[in-house]
Amino acid sequence: MIKTIIWKNNTVVLIDQNALPLAERYVACKSYKEVISCIKDLTVRGAPAIGVAAAMGAALGALRLPSGTPEKFRKNFFAICEEIAKARPTARNLFWALERMKKVIDPKNKETQSSLVKELINEAGRICSEDIEINRQMGKYGSPLFTDGDNVLTHCNAGALATAGYGTALGVIRAARAQGKRLHIYVDETRPVLQGARLTAWELKKEKIPFTLITDNMAGFLMQQKKIDKIIVGADRIAANGDAANKIGTYSLAVLEGAHGIPFYIAAPLSTIDVSLKTGASIPIEERKNEEVTGFKGVRSAPIGTKVYNPAFDVTPARFITEIITEKGILKKPFRLSIARAYKGEKNS
Ligand code: MRU
Predict the structure, then answer these.
(1) Would you state the pLDDT for residue 68?
(2) Bridge-based pairing state of the strands 295-296 and 299-300
(3) Pocket of ligand 1 (CB under 6 A)
(4) Tens digits of residue pLDDT in 15-42
(5) Residue 96: pLDDT above 90?
(6) What was the pLDDT predicted at 347?
(7) Which of 68, 132, 239, 255 could share a disulfide with 165, CB 3.0–4.6 Å?
(8) Are 154 and 185 a contacting pair, CB within 8 Å?
(9) 49 Cα–ligand 1 center, Å
(10) What percent of the chain has pLDDT over 90?
(11) Are 155 and 197 within 8 A, CB to CB?
């Protein structure tokens, strides 16, 4: 299995997603600041993977703190978490993971600094291993939605690389394939950073899952030609009403899906759902640098001085989403109710 992120000899080792698919190489972060720059520059990306990286980065920060009073240690650790929280704004998992890490340093916890650090490292490790298990659960619940012979469209990369391993949307595809269902995947290239062409195509090729790469603007034509049976994507943040932020271009697919009557599934862990936001209108949308749009990997394609708008995510209104696949089952409409039930630990389906 692809190891997106591991804790090794007190370093955080990440597969370099900017180098893929041309080179498979790893980056070893020795400080939390290095982890922050890897999150910012997309060496590690994808909502659950960002969450795991944030947790491990926080543990790394704690490990390197000088010994001091419990109050000072707690204050410094919280400051590190705050700094990591600024790395990227949209993926809910980043903030969820940091909240979980902060809970370890409860003021009532009177342990020594070195045992608190050990607990933090263990908690980050748990966040990582639980993520793989959660993805497998999503695969279990989501795979029955797919039938032998389906042509499935996916956008961006919601695979092993976007998580600690296995994947959300691609995890469901993996699980369906493991049940012997022959699926063919249409992979949206995903402008401007090409997570589809570079990362999803790399993962599917590695797993020998048949796929065809298309540019994002081809999806509508394929739907019109009845070449797509189902759409499955991941999510970066889902509001309490089911509105879902995902990679820019997802909303366009959802509108097209609505017009063509194609089922549109989102696969995401509960840690991606932000029940504090009533609707998707309050989800913060990251804007990234102009160079991602004016060229690719340093090769310019637009005239110097071209004005650019580069939102990295868009929000798909809940009405376009057929069902949300989580580790606790399939969430059906009305999502406000099914999400609330899942949060209370009640079974959905
Ligand atoms: O900018 P990225 O590459 O971090 O965006 C990633 C996505 O939008 C994914 O689709 C999303 O995080 C779901 S991943 C399981």
Answers:
(1) 92
(2) antiparallel
(3) 45-48, 91, 156, 158, 162-163, 168, 195, 233-236, 246-247, 312
(4) 999 999 999 999 999 999 999 999 999 9
(5) yes
(6) 72
(7) 132
(8) yes
(9) 9
(10) 95
(11) no
Residue type, 287: E
Amino acid at 196: G
- Asked if the model's pLDDT at residue 349 lies above 70, the reply is no
Which residues are identified as catalytic?
236
Q: What is the pLDDT of residue 109?
A: 75
- Nearest-angstrom CA–CA distance, 83 and 39: 12
* CB 26, CB 16: distance < 8 Å: yes
Which one-letter amino acid corresponds to residue 31? S
Q: Are 3 and 44 in contact (CB under 8 A)?
A: no
Structure tokens at 94: 């980043």
What integer best gives the mean pLDDT of the chain? 97
Q: How far apart are CA 156 and CA 198, in angstroms?
A: 9
| Residue 290 Cα distances to 16, 297, 304, 313, angstroms | 22, 12, 11, 15
Rg, Å, the chain Cα set: 20
Give the Å distances, CA to CA, from 245 to 47, 60, 234, 280.
11, 29, 9, 7
Half-sphere exposure (CA, 13 Å, Cβ side) for 28?
6
Q: Cβ(47)–Cβ(92) under 8 Å?
A: yes
Q: How far apart are CA 74 and CA 59, in angstroms?
A: 12
Query: Which atom of ligand 1 lies at the shortest distance from residue 247's CA?
Result: 8
Q: Ligand 1 centre from 93 Cα, in Å?
A: 11
Give the mean model confidence (pLDDT) for residues 230-243.
Answer: 98
Q: If you average pLDDT over residues 104-124, what whole number do you get?
A: 91
